[in-house]
Amino acid sequence: MAYSLGLTLYTLASRREAAAQPRPPRPAGTLVWLHAPDAETARPMAELAGRVMSDLGHAVILTGAAPPKGNLPHTPLGDDNPADVAAFLDHWTPDLTVFSGGEVRPAMIAALKDRGIPMMMVDARAPRLPEGSRRWPGLLRGAVQQFAHILTLDDAAARAYRRAGAEAKVAGRMEEPHLVLPCTEAERAEITRGIAGRPVWLAAALPQAEEDAIIVAHRSALHLSHRLLLIVVPENSERAAGLTFRMEEAGLATAARADEDEIEPETEVYIADNPEEFGLWYRLAPICYLGGSLTDGAIRDPLEGASLGSALIHGPKTGDHAGAFARLVARKATQPIANAKALGDALSDLMAPDRMARLAGEAWDVASDGSEVTDRVLALIDRMTEER
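^ that's the sequence the OP posted. Answer follows.
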């Protein structure tokens, strides 16, 4: 093995340290190992993990970025060195490995090859080594040629693998976990009766720093539609009482869910303090501003609102959701704004029914695509595990 010499350089102390990390028992039967190097790739890999378990009946283990679904088996991987690689593979002995995102781990790939464990790469961007890896001439090129299948996100990524001497096919992005948040239908129907057909928009996870911008935008939009209702879910539920006072101080008739207030015909702002009810508010509000996107970064995943039919307004700060925003913006499926002053104009623009419907439809398409790619990957996993 090419890395056997390197293994001798690791001390007994480092071996004991790696072995001391507790691992759960290996599940019985066929085990598929899925690796997602970052949060963006963790989402589709979580969906794939669920499909491998439910459709194929195989056990899975995930490494890398933690999956969004908390009930999936996730374990630390360790560094890409011979000691950590050997400890990981000795314990888990996977039957198939699926890497994603383009991260290439040469020591692990060499060990997998020596053990006869097949590998594939999915949702692949251009190949790259992990942070901190030593760059040896030809290291990346030799590693990528070991994958049985490479499915890339786009043509540029496929060309990068081909330049390295590997076969690669453009497949596109895999499906992400179903993001439709739940709500109680009886409660939705009751609040819908209170709204009584009024136009509604939502400020989702609104930080205190953006409250003034929302107030200015809402007061401006009320000149165009005096029946417009604003629903606000503050970033911090403890801010609900202070926000209610702030809205009333600005001259807006305000009701608070925490006080069990009803939405009356004269109510202009409704403060909702429970973050567990976003599924309800997205369903009621066909227009949604994503809080934090004008200041420190969007707090909620934009695909949540997109999957429930909301037309999305957001600032330039994407927070932890850069990939989702990039996909939505590329499809012109959102209304981006550069600053707080543009919020009122964006809101007025989306109050046109045709504009709102087009944007919401495009966003829903983005939130629901990728299922065919996941089916293709699943079929490859099924065939490769059967062959093994």
